[in-house]
Design goal:
Blueprint: E1 5-9, H1 19-31, E2 36-42, H2 48-52, E3 56-60, H3 66-77
Parallel strand pairs: 1-2, 2-3
């Protein structure tokens, strides 16, 4: 099997909740043995859930538009 880099783009905050991050973490934990997992998210205290699992994290810069953030991630991975 070819080892791939998989990026999970998800955010969490007190306003939007943790559901999406928790579900992405569950999938990421299953994939981590075969693939390189990276989380792309905004910088927030809720990132402790991701950090506690020792996944690499790319942080979106303050006021950075989504397209620029995704382009930045893509350029780092290529």
């Amino acid at each position: 099997m070819v080892r791939k880099t998989i990026v999970f783009r998800c955010d969490a905050s007190p306003d939007i909740g943790l559901g999406h991050v928790i579900r992405c973490l569950a999938v990421a934990k299953e994939l981590r043995r075969q693939h390189c997992i990276i989380f792309a998210t905004t910088e927030d205290n809720t990132n402790a859930y991701i950090k506690n699992e020792n996944f690499k994290i790319f942080f979106k810069k303050r006021n950075e538009i989504e397209e620029v953030f995704l382009d930045r991630i893509s350029s780092i991975l290529n």
